Amino acid sequence: MASLREVLNQHVREGELYEPIDRNRVRCYACGHCCPILEGQPGVCKVRYNEGGKLYVPWGYVGGVQCDPIEKKPFFHAYPGALAYSFGMLGCDLHCSYCQNWVTSQALRDPNAVSPPLQASPDLLVKDALRQGAKVLVSTYNEPLITAEWAVAIFQEAKSAGLKTAFVSNGNGTPQVLEYIRPWIDFYKVDLKSFDDRHYRQLGGRIGPILDTIRRLDDMGVWLEIVTLLIPGFNDSDDELCRLAEFLAGVSRDIPWHVTAFHKDYKMSDPDDTKPEDLIRAAEIGKNAGLRFVYAGNLPGRVGTLEDTHCHHCASMLVRRYGYFIEEYNLTANGCCRDCGNAVPGRWPERFEGQIADRPFLPGHSSSFVTIR
Ligand code: SF4
Fold first, then answer.
1. How many Cβ atoms sit within 10 Å of the Cβ of residue 85?
2. How far apart (Å, rounded) are the C-alpha atoms in residues 39 and 23?
3. Which residue from 63, 166, 235, 335 has the highest number of Cβ atoms inside 10 Å of its Cβ?
4. Whose alpha carbon is nearest atom 7 of ligand 1?
5. Could you read off the pLDDT of 164-214 as tens digits, one per residue?
6. Residue 33 in contact with ligand 1 by CB distance below 6 A
């Protein structure tokens, strides 16, 4: 039986985000590592490799698909209640020891991460998304930047079918990859894991490219939301959270910031699970820094009104939530507060059509996807 590496090497095509350095090396620009890659070697992510002076990149498969409420991504200011059809590939450019998607993200590093790929095409994915009633197609589960060429091929098809598109990403980008995806992407979630470069180095990255990505996406006008998974003892000091929130508010006070609760996962089992009072403290720090929309996630019903969206002018309830479930929706057709008429930052539907699903589920007809062996 073929190894996972052999299987994946049969599902590649030449990439577009690279250039030659010299006879033996190419440089990849798909993520902030900007790896110089020697002939016959892969980059840090393990899924892009140099063969004969060409960079080969993943193509023609998914590590999995799932339908999620868009609130799970989480996007709270982009088509509330919409169904997000999510797909991912395999591999990641970081190696976070608490990764909640480690089975797909660490598939080529960790022999315990077993996730057989499924044969896929842009046409098949878009048709399946439409059949489920999805409004948004999302590249997630592994790091989408490292498979940007494949995501763009799918998003081109998705946009011509009227779907919105999104990345759920660690934000370790480059100017080149952000310009490359720009025409094809509507929403972007960055997982800002810390505001300390030493912490980022523990996870295999650097903070600089991530902060640059946040600034660039905001400049580009891509709808952006930020998530920070609050890990007790790792990234939750008042000082670090204060610096992080002040940075975001300095980019734009309208960027929604979600602080979410850690639970023990993968190799990080020392920290305690995050408590509701920790999320509430972080949210207070965000508001004091000037952020207008701060949310506390993962602990439904235990964080007061921090799951809800309030008007930043008159404080009226705009969207009431319980977990992923939308309980009340009070925006006008043009995305304004019904009480005071002020525009609310975000991407809103003309009409709230109710919620298709308030919990994740596997798409029906999934037999359309054939496991690659
Ligand atoms: S995607 Fe990032 S980690 Fe992978 S080869 Fe390119 S620069 Fe290196």
1. 25
2. 9
3. 166
4. 34
5. 999 999 999 999 999 999 999 999 999 999 999 999 999 999 999 999 999
6. yes
